[in-house]
Design a protein that fits this description.
With about 200 residues, the protein is of the alpha/beta class. The chain is about 30% helix and about 25% strand.
Length: about 200
């Protein structure tokens, strides 16, 4: 719920390995959603570890990574299916809502989805990415002091807009009530690795 509130997107999970993995998974979601295009435009301000993981994953996906300090211009020059923007960037700068909205508009006009790699703590004081047009938002929950886990290093989150819930990696657990009115957790959505062919699996 907290991740949904801060990102402005309705469906969210927080069971990914780290932010780099979350960025790569978000690009995978975008690839499954957008069948056309072969390029991912990456903001030059992306965390270096995220870019490293993404470059490795791109080899398996068969897509090209183009890093650019001007993603608005880059998205018009390439056949992109996704644009990844880091907010705040590695140097701490935060693009204005107007800049981000212009990027999202241009990306959507070109048929690309917008992925925001966003710091959760920063999202408590800046507008939610969904308000300026982000389709997918990812990042680390460690900023709120979430401790190390066995799968480690810590839980990363991914949130998506309507219609992309079934593309999410992992499982979504929902809060429900049993017949006595007691709060109960239930498996609301799971990917179908065990039910379908391996090449169709989402994680």
């Amino acid at each position: 719920t907290m991740v949904s509130d801060l990102t402005g997107l309705p469906a969210a999970g927080a069971s990914l390995l780290d932010e780099g993995t979350a960025v790569a998974e978000a690009v995978g979601v975008a690839r499954r959603r957008q069948r056309s295009g072969s390029v991912v435009i990456v903001d030059a301000g992306i965390l270096p570890q995220s870019l490293a993981v993404l470059r490795t994953r791109a080899l398996a996906l068969g897509v090209e990574i183009v890093a650019s300090a001007d993603p608005v211009q880059a998205v018009t020059e390439h056949d992109a299916f996704a644009v990844v923007v880091q907010t705040p960037a590695t140097d701490g700068t935060i693009r204005s809502v107007e800049e981000l909205s212009a990027l999202a508009t241009r990306a959507h006009d070109q048929g690309a989805l917008v992925i925001a790699a966003a710091d959760l703590l920063a999202l408590t004081v800046v507008p939610a990415p969904a308000t300026w047009g982000a389709d997918i938002v990812v990042g680390s929950t460690q900023r709120f002091g979430v401790p190390l886990f066995y799968g480690g290093p810590h839980a990363a989150y991914i949130a998506v807009g309507p219609g992309m819930e079934r593309q999410l990696p992992g499982r979504l657990v929902g809060l429900s009530q049993d017949r006595h009115g007691t709060p109960a957790l239930r498996l609301a959505l799971q990917t179908r690795e065990q039910h379908i062919r391996r090449e169709k699996a989402t994680s």
